[in-house]
Amino acid sequence: MINLRGIAAFLALLGAAAESHAAGVTIGVVAPQNGPLALLGAQIAAGAGFEIQQSGNTLVAINETCEENSGAAVADALVNAKVQVAVGFLCSETLEGALPKLKDANIPVITVSVRSRILMEDALKNGWPLFRAAPADGAEAAKVIEVILKDWAADPIALIEDGTIHGRELTEAVRNALEQNGLKPVFTDTYRPGQEQQIALVRRLKRAGATRVFIGGDRNDIAVIARDAKAEYIQLSILGGDAMRAANQPQPLADGVRAVALPEYALLPESAATADALRTKGVEPEGYVLPSLAAALIAGQAGQAAAAAGKPLQEMLLGATFQTPVGTIAFTGAHELSQNPYRLLEWRGNGFFPPAAPTQ
User: Fold this and answer.
1) Which of 15, 36, 266, 271 makes an SS bond possible with 285, Cβ 3.0 to 4.6 Å?
2) What is the dihedral of CA 76, 78, 81, 86, to 10 degrees?
């Protein structure tokens, strides 16, 4: 959990430092500073601010309200502050209004949150300078499909989902991919979420002969299904999606349950030193902290490269590879991450970790 008192003090110090001098690359950090999204905004500001301070660049903090038609004002503030590149951007509403003006000002944007496929299509069509350091819409499904086709293709597979829009769409994408590869699930169903027990469901899975089940649902429902399968002596390999990254309660998750999810970046070896440094500042490296730090690192390095080469900063974001605390990052010609950030993870003890061995 983020230490709110510590992070507030840290951000105050960053603000004072930004006002005291201007140096290096001027980077705008756009994030909510108040309201219901303030905690996420604080994560973005803390991560990006830490990196900007460490690199000797200049931070310009811009409040993001995430309201309709608020983007133009954000763009004006960035232009008036003479920023060279901007990072953050929690909401698509901000980007929709800001990008046309930022294109005119040659200010590229790196969003750490917005996943809209349509927005990126519009950006590419209109030449808006948007780069996405977040997963694209559909990346989760693509990784789930990759894992299932690689590890489960020879086994009887069940697909179940909780009836929510996300659960249904994710599971439907998997089903379509299986059928395109000549595979038919032995069981499909929509279960009722939020139940204290799912014994009838796991018995139906057993009768269908399923040994592998993908579940488009939330963490607690999956924990209940795993518990009841074990109680009924039903051997099921269970895979969920990114919704598994949630509080491990009220039903704890059983060891061995797997998820295709974004990793806890603070647990990665390449993140250890940076995570420790953030903690000394009272900032827990959770949520958007490390991704925002990585975005600011990329912005700073691209800005320095652009100045050295006498080229537009946007060109330096393309065709370059950046080593960051969340891994190696490069952007495609479509301004997306070149590698899918979702990973196959397994619950062990108190966290999700890379599987110890290939799926059997």
Assistant:
1) 266
2) -170
Calculate mean pLDDT across residues 187-200. Answer: 97
Nearest to 89 by CA among 107, 74, 104, 106: 74
CATH of 139-261+342-353, one of 3.20.20.370, 3.40.1010.10, 3.40.50.510, 3.40.50.2300: 3.40.50.2300
Evaluate if residue 95 carries a pLDDT over 80: yes
Q: Which two tokens stand for residue 325?
A: 């605390």
Per-domain boundaries in the chain: 4-135+267-325, 139-261+342-353
Query: pLDDT tens-digit profile of 105-133?
Result: 999 999 999 999 999 999 999 999 999 99
Same topology for domains 4-135+267-325 and 139-261+342-353, yes or no? yes
Neighbours of 302 (CB within 10 A): 26
| Entry field: residues in the chain | 360
| Identity at 276, one-letter amino acid code | D
CA-to-CA distance for 11 and 42, rounded, in angstroms?
8
Residue 356, pLDDT above cutoff 80:
no
| Sign of the alpha-carbon dihedral angle for 258, 262, 265, 266 | negative
Q: What token pair was written down for 347?
A: 């619950």
- pLDDT at residue 140 tops 90: yes
Q: In the structure, what pLDDT confidence band is assigned to residue 325 with cuts at 50, 70 and 90?
A: very high
Indicate the SS3 state at residue 339: coil
Strand-pair category, 85-88 with 26-31 = parallel
Cis peptide preceding 325, ω within 30 of 0: no
Pseudo-torsion of CA 209, 214, 219, 222, nearest 10°?
Answer: 0
pLDDT (average), residues 208-214: 98
Q: What is the mean pLDDT of residues 51-72?
A: 97
